[in-house]
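Technical annex B. To support the medicinal chemistry partners, we prepared a structural model of the target in complex with magnesium ion, based solely on the information shown next.
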Amino acid sequence: MEEKKENGLSNTGNFIHMYVQEDLEGKLNKIHTRFPPEPNGYLHIGHAKSICLNFGIAKLYGGKCNLRFDDTNPTKEDTEYVESIKEDVKWLGFDWEDRLYFASSYFEKYYEVAVKLIQEGKAFVCDLTAEEMKEYRGTLNTPGKESPYRNRSVEENLDLFERMKKGEFPDGAKTLRAKIDMASPNINMRDPVLYRIAHATHHTTGDAWCIYPMYDFAHPLEDAIEGITHSICTMEFEDHRPLYDWVVKEAGFTTNPPRQIEFARLGLTNTVMSKRKLRALVEEGLVDGWDDPRMPTISGLRRRGFTPESIRDFCERIGVSKANSVVDSGLLEYCIRDDLKTKAKVVMAILHPLKLVITNYPEGQIELMDIENNPENPELGTRQVPFTKNLYIEQEDFMEEPVKKFFRLAPGKEVRLKGAYFVTCTDVIKDENGNIIEVHCTYDPETKSGSGFTGRKVKGTLHWVSADHCIQTTARLYDYMMLDNPESGDMIMNPNSLEVIEDCYIEPAIEEAKPGDKYQFMRNGYFCVDTKDTTENHMVFNRIVSLKSSFKLK
Ligand code: ATP
Ligand code: MG
């Protein structure tokens, strides 16, 4: 097992920790990271990996981590997303203190750097259309061609750039490009675009700007302005690193410039992770919003009933590497089971009710059975569960003609009712269509739970609720959101990803439950009280995860 530090963070085996340590032993005496989401959607579990990594490293080495909104693209960004992202980062247990930044607040600074580059002959205004630029760019095997506008004078460039800023040109008419090397083997270095024209309203700066910096220009400047020491990002930016370093250097940030380190994106089986794909599901109405409990978003996982502890544990277990891989969703399920195992109270809830009548039990009698709240955690105490003549059990716990090894209830067979008595099935009642609507049993008063009865043993123990005392609730059972579609190689929505049970009967102890509370329903899995659809008079439960899994921890 990995060595754990006091703060619960692993300190070995992660190459990023190695780089950071190396820098701390060398030129740096403090470290500063950032989590830089673009507010164009809700955060997902992949972002959680990046959050845990960035905030985790800062915590581990006594440094700081900023929350920075990378909001330099006016068309897709929105304050709704800003608010949700703040909420999610906080909920995950991380604190940016007073360091909440917006890349859009540096617009003036990027502009100054751009002007400086023009003055130094390192940037030019280009009139090539997007189409032409693509042609000029060349390919991996062939060098690019220099733009005919590359040798404009500094004065002309300064004038044109200012007029771009003033709004004299329509979208796409001109760009500002770095003057680097059209023959570079790295396509990112072939005179990349730094600014484009976009007459669009920005969510924080409104209509103040009609030129916007490109990500590859703005991002390194954001890091440098904030004094970031380690700019941790995902693998697709590896080829952009030379440009990142170029921008930082040419802008004049020469002492301890930020160091970009790439790591592999998280992928999960049976789900999609990109915000673009998640947004499509929301917009097409295939899910109940960004926080649909099937979604891999932080808000979806929270609503489903995942805890911050379980998500942090998951991020710790998957580790950090440079090789892209898809993690089994079963690992995430393992983590929430592991977290709730001793935390959640265990109650009896019937998902598919079958009436059970104890014919020799006195009508109107109520016995309060003492049952432990969590067999794995005695600290959670016990509760009283009312036992009566009319009960409900699960339909699948009864078979009129039992198959081999069926140790539950069947005609003539005896089972234990959890925390109560042994009962023996004496009769089966059917409706006119032959469907079983009731089973009749007799109980043996000698066998009361806790009485020390040792007369005989039974193989099956069933959960049950009193038909006169149970609470009717709605339960939602989930399957994976997406299925592999071998034909297209892409994924499709699982048509059976949601099953709604309108008659889920739960023992009265559930009355105390508040939205967001988590329980284990005996034999049926972990459930969470839905925070959106639960009303004062009706509870809705989301199944977080079933109890059993085919997933094995390696
Ligand atoms: P998406 O494609 O889902 O929109 P993104 O990379 O565009 O993702 P950003 O908002 O730019 O999303 O991401 C903020 C940070 O989170 C970035 O540093 C990015 O590298 C990281 N990140 C995003 N997705 C993942 C993922 N699946 N695994 C790990 N880190 C991720
Ligand atoms: Mg993005």
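Notes passed to the chemistry partners:
The CA atoms of residues 137 and 335 lie 47 Å apart.
The chain has a mean pLDDT of 95.
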